[in-house]
Amino acid sequence: MAAEVITGMTTHDYDTVVIGAGAAGLNAALLLARARRRVAVVDNGRPRNAPAAHMHGFLSRDGIAPPVFLDVARAEVLGYGATLIDASVSEVTEGFTTTLDTGQTLSARSLVVATGLRDELPDIPGVRERWGRDVVHCPYCHGYEVRDRPLGILGTSPGAVFHAQMLRQWSADVVLFAHTLDMTAEDRAQLHARGIQVIDGPIRSVVVTDDAVRGVELTDGTQIARSTVFVVPRMVPRDSLLRALGCTVGPDGWIVVDRAGQTTVPGVFAAGNVIDPRAQVVTAAGMGSAAGFAINIALVQDDITSALTTPAHAT
User: Fold this and answer.
1) Which residues form the FAD/NAD(P)-binding domain (predicted)?
2) How far is CA 216 from CA 27, 45, 106, 113, 302, in A?
C-alpha cells in the first residue's frame, strides 16, 4: 500500500493527529515532532497496562513502572513541540477532522490510530480483581518474576493448553485447570510428558486472601494452592475509528496494514495492539516509529506537490 496523505497543507491545524498515547502513539509523535511536524496527541488516560506494577522486555527500560515510563515519554514528546490533549475521540470524519468529547475539533493531513485493545476476561470471581497483579497473561512480562513458584493456568480458552507448556520453562510446578476445555488425548499426553498436572472440573473462583492470590477453587469445593494464576483473555482491538473510516478488515478480524502501519485508507496509519495483539511495549514503540517515518515521507511528497502548485515561499 502506497503511503499517502490528505493534501492542502495550509488548511489543517496539524500535519498529524495521533490517537492514543501509549508506546506506539508517543513514539510516532516523537519521530514526527523531531521532524518539525505539527503533531497533536489525544489520549483519555486509560492505558491497558495500568494495573501492572512493572513492565519488562524493553531494553534500557526493563522493570520500569508503566506510569513512570509514560510520564518520561510524554515529557520527551512535549519537549519537541507536540501538543498533548487529554480527551477521548468521539468521531473522525473524512478528511481527518477529529471531534473530541470536549467538543474541540482538530483537522489534520494524516492520522495515526494507536488505541490498543481491551482484554475480555472470563467471568470467574477473583480474576478481574487481581488482573495485572497475580492474575496475569503474558509469560514474557511476568514469568521471570514468578519463576519456580506454584503456577496455575485457567482453562478458559483453547490457547490455555499451549500457554501451560510455555509456563513450564519458568516453573516445574504448573497446573492446568481444565474447566470447560475439551482437551484431546494428545493434549493430555504432551502435558503429562512435561510434568504439567491437569485438574478436571469447573472452576468456582480464584482464591484471594490478605490481598494476594492463594489458589483456585473448583465448584466441588476443592482448593489447589497457587501463588500466581495465568489466563488467556480474549483480546478485542479498539478499532472502531478505523472501521468507521473504511479501513479493510482481514479474515482474522484485525485491520489490514502494511509494514509501516499504513491502512487501506490513504493517510490513515495504525500501530501497536490495535493491529497486533502480540505486540509488547517495545514492539509497539517500534511500530509507532515506523509509522511516523512513513508519514513524514508521505508529507514530504505532498509538500513537493504543493510547492509546485503554489507561488514560491507562499507556505
Assistant:
1) 14-286
2) 40, 33, 49, 39, 59
Q: What is the CATH number of the domain that holds 147?
A: 3.50.50.60
Shared-domain flag, residues 24 and 113: yes
Report which of 239, 268, 267, 277 is spatially closest to residue 255, judged by C-alpha positions. Answer: 239
Same domain, 115 and 239: yes
State mean pLDDT over 181-207: 97
pLDDT digit string, tens, across residues 117-158: 999 999 999 999 999 999 999 999 999 999 999 999 999 999
Other beta carbons within 10 angstroms of residue 97's beta carbon come to: 15
Cell numbers for 38? 505539527
Task: For 247-306, write each residue's pLDDT tens digit.
Answer: 999 999 999 999 999 999 999 999 999 999 999 999 999 999 999 999 999 999 999 999
Cβ(2)–Cβ(297) below 8 Å: no
Choose one of 195, 230, 265: the last residue of a domain: 230
Same domain (yes/no): 89, 238: yes
Task: Answer whether residue 314 shows pLDDT above 90.
Answer: no
Confirm if 15 and 82 have CB atoms less than 8 A apart.
no
| Domain extent at residue 209 | 122-230
